[in-house]
Amino acid sequence: MRVLIVEDEPKTGAYLKKGLEESGFSVDLAKDGAEGLMLAQEESYDVIVLDVMLPVLDGWDVLKRLRDTHTTPVLFLTARDDVQDRVHGLELGADDYLVKPFAFVELLARIRTLARRGPPRETERITVGDLEMDVVRRRVRRGTVRIELTPREFALLQLLARRQGEVLSRTQIASYVWDMNFDSDTNVVEVAIRRLRAKIDDDFPVKLIHTVRGVGYVLEPKDKA
Ligand code: CA
C-alpha cells in the first residue's frame, strides 16, 4: 500500500516515513503543498496524510484542488485543536483528521482504516436511501423534498452519511462536530440528533438515523422495526 505524507517539518516527516515503512507501507514524502499536490495528482496512493500548515500551498488548498479530480482518502493533521479546522477539513472532503501531537499507533490505525475503506465513489454527492447530499452546493433532499439545514446540522449529517452503516459513538460525533470531549454528561449530541431527525426523518416512513443503545448512532435506510 502506498502512502503520501505531506509534511514540512523535516523531523516529523522523516519519523512518519520511517515508521510507516517499518509497518509495511511504501511511502513518499513531500515537503510543501505544491509538491504534495503534484505527487497526489500524478501518482496513485491508497492514503494521503496531509499537514494543514504548509509552505507554498497550505493543506486546505491542496485538499480543495485535489478533490476536483481525485477521491484518494485524506487524513489531515492539524496542530490546533480547533473545531473550525475539523469542520472545514471535513467539508472540503477530508476523510479523517488527527490533532498534533498524536501517537504513532493512532496514526497507523487511522491509515489502515482509510486504506481498507478505499476512496468513496463520489465525494460531491452522498446518497443514503432516498437522501441526497450535495456537498458542494450544500443542498439536502429526500426524494423530491428539499430540506434546509443549519451549517452544524449539515456537518453532522455529512459525518453520519460519509460513515453510513457505521455506528458512531457520541464521543466520536462530538469530537468531529463540536469542540468538546464528552466526559461530562452533556447531551449536546442527543439534542442535535433530535433536531436533525425532526428535519430529515419525522415526515418520512423510512427512517435514516437510528439509535444504537449504549453505543451511539448510525445512518442507514431502514424501516422502523
Ligand atoms: Ca506544518
Automatic annotation (TrEMBL):
The lineage's top-level taxon is Bacteria
Task: Please report the stretch or stretches of sequence annotated as the OmpR/PhoB-type domain.
Answer: 123-221
Q: What GO terms describe the biological role, i.e. biological process, of this protein? A: regulation of DNA-templated transcription
Key word Zinc present = yes
Keywords of the record, alphabetical order, are:
Cadmium, DNA-binding, Phosphoprotein, Transcription, Transcription regulation, Two-component regulatory system, Zinc
**Taking every annotated instance into account, which residue ranges of this chain make up the domain Response regulatory?**
2-115
Q: Which residues carry this modification: 4-aspartylphosphate?
A: D51
- List cellular component terms (GO): cytosol; protein-DNA complex
**Coiled-coil region(s):** none
GO molecular function term, any single one:
phosphorelay response regulator activity
InterPro entries linked = CheY-like_superfamily, CusR-like, OmpR/PhoB-type_DNA-bd, Sig_transdc_resp-reg_receiver, WalR-like, WH-like_DNA-bd_sf
Q: Which residues bind DNA?
A: 123-221
Q: What is this protein called?
A: Two component heavy metal response transcriptional regulator, winged helix family
UniProt source species: Paraburkholderia susongensis
